[in-house]
Design brief:
The structure is a single chain. The chain is an all-alpha fold. It folds into 2 domains: 57 residues, Helix Hairpins (Orthogonal Bundle); 192 residues, Four Helix Bundle (Hemerythrin (Met), subunit A) (Up-down Bundle). 75% of the residues lie in helices and 0% in strands. It is globular.
Length: 275
Amino acid sequence: MTTAAQSLNKLKSQFQAHPFHLVAQSPWPISISWTLFFTAIGAVLYMQGYGGKLLSLGFLLTISVMYFWFEDVAAEGSLNGDHTKQVKKGLILGFYLFLVSEIFAFFSVFWAYFHSSLVPAVEIGSVWPPLGVTPLNPFAIPLLNTFLLVSSGAFITYGHHALIAGKRSDAIISIFLTIVLAIIFTALQYYEYSESSFTIADSVFGTTFYASTGLHGFHVIVGTIFIIVSLTRIITYTVTKHTHVGLESSILYWHFVDVVWLFLYVAVYYWGSAV
């Protein structure tokens, strides 16, 4: 074999012949498995009255591992160029499948709510809301929160289109406003909980109310963090109009949160108080 052929073969060996990303060995999957294990054990010990030190440690370690893992994924997509067109399609498809699992999670909560409200048990007076429980006014904070979430969805959609069109400053402002509205929503939700006349222990009404709205509130917090990370990456130029799969995923997640809230508002707040 000639020297030229050897050089050519050596050059070819440095490139892969397929569009997929074969990830390198990483310590993060096994690390997060252990941190989640410690978090679960810590939660059990906390509920049994043994303190929350292990729970706090497991939670902090989980957050730390997630940060370093996501940092590696971001570097693979923006700096290393490992996220080809085919890889991006796979990531978006995987995120859609994740949203399907989220739909079934909320479906189970709605199932419990309608199972309890459509045919109220004798133990709660055979009426819904149960006797002695005063539901929240759907035209007060819940309606305001609906306006905030719908507006935030419009802002983040505009920010996405602005980024694609090369209007980076408009994208940053729009996504920042989305974060502000999300924080206001969360604050109002906390205020609503603190002023509510019933608790999660007040019959099945309180349980299903706080389970459904609390699960949604948790998703709002996660989605807010998701969007904050995307905004930070836009500011640092690691997300551009050509490479923004993470931003698209956060937008999909936020629209999912918006749609779930609309169902919650109609079913739990409006219909639940009017029956």
